TrEMBL record, chain A:
GO terms for cellular component: ATP-binding cassette (ABC) transporter complex. The keyword Transmembrane helix applies. The keyword Zinc does not apply. This is ABC transporter permease. Belongs to the MlaE permease family. The chain crosses the membrane at residues 48-67, 140-170, 190-211, 231-249. Keywords: Membrane, Transmembrane, Transmembrane helix, Transport. It is found in: Membrane.
Automatic annotation (TrEMBL), chain B:
Pfam families: ABC_tran (PF00005). Residues 2-240 form the ABC transporter domain. This is ATP-binding cassette domain-containing protein. Keywords: ATP-binding, Nucleotide-binding, Transport. One of its GO terms (molecular function) is ATP hydrolysis activity. The keyword Metal-binding does not apply. The keyword Heme does not apply. It comes from the Bacteria.
Amino acid sequence: MKMEKINRYFHNIGNFAIFARKAYKSVFPWPKFKNIFKDLYEMSIKSFPIVALTSSFMGLIMTYQLIYELRKYGLEVNVGGIVGVAVTRELGPVFAALILAGRLSSAIAAEIGSMKISEQIDALKLMSVDPLNYLVAPRLIAAILMVPLLTVFADAIAIFSGFLVSYNILDMSLLRYIDKIQFHVVTMDILSGLIKSLFFSQVIVMVGAFFGYTTEGGAEGVGKSTTNAVVYASVLILLVDYFLTALFFG
Amino acid sequence: MIKVENLHKSFGKNKVLNGIDLTFEKGKITTIIGQSGSGKSVFLKHLVGLFKPDMGRVYVDNQDITDIEEEKMKKIREKFSYLFQGGALFDSLNILENVAFPVVWGTKKNPEDYDIKEKVKEVLARVGLKNIEYKKPSELSGGMKKRVALARAIIKEPEYILYDEPTTGLDPVMSATIDDIILKLNRDLNILTIVVSHDMQSVYKISDTICMLYGGKIVFEGTESQIKKCKDKHVNNFINRMSINS
């Protein structure tokens, strides 16, 4: 039984790799712009409020914690720099990606899963339409544009939230806060965060699409796929983050 | 012509199709009957390459499609229309976009183009629907969805139409209307029609040939008068609505 489970696990990894290869191949011919814009809208306007809200709380809480610790050593004046490095390198991209995994991977898995069980995907095939080109390719393209952009917003909001706490507790001026950011944050910090977000964008869409596409067994199956999509996308984001961090800073 | 030779299909340990040989000819309506879960829809999906058989061959116009590449299969599928059991309308599109989909996809045409819109209205009228172009599938009843799906299936005037339970869930008047549409299309376009159905009234009305699937095999193939005289217990039980315990 255990062996069977392990076999199935590796079988699924193999299936995911094959699915990803097919999905990237399906990007050509280029999907209809109307479909890409629809997904851009879904990923931008509709995702922005939740990303903004969570990033602001992340910035507020982290800055409180940092000031509390730094005060012990009389280093609280550097809080802006530390917030800047932590947010641009790590917390901004990862936090935004995890929130988007919860919002987008689940939505993609649920939509494609429902289409699968109601034979809409078969209907597409019968009309000689490549379902991956119609359903997955526009999302891959939209995500590669939108997730890094949302990450930049998340970074900016978290850093600004950090300033609000610094101003409130330390009476720190905006100029001083920015000065510390400029001193500590280097181009590589921002660049590494953005490169990570590019990879995360693909994980978010691909995992959601894979679980949607492999849905079986009615409404219960859609529920399972949706849960799996969020769980596996989140785990994969952290795994990819680890390897990219080791690559950039190891 | 569609020809099936020694078709076998299993899902895990469940043997669904167990050696089916059938030939479908142009201009004829063949109906496949059988109990729920007997593999009728599975059989139908083999004819359009949605399922690959474990054993056996499927030929469309003398071309073997059993192991054909997906790109070549796309070309063959252009000859087909398929009415799915639940309609399979695209939830995110309105009725106009759904019905126009087969004729606008892959072209520069738009569902809002005058000629496309008129064509959509015409096929919707043929299935007894009007003024629903801008509704979403979720706003329609089950029967209406099925008729919209039928409109989508016939908009491209295909060479082969496969209907998966076209009258299930419809009221008697609408069932009769759908029967008339199936007959008229077959007569007007001289196409090959295969219908999977439980509805014996409809089966008798439209069929040139009736085939019964039982235990993964075709246990009967013939006309209405022949099936009524058939001595096979499973066929008798089915056509006379007798309990499985009788």
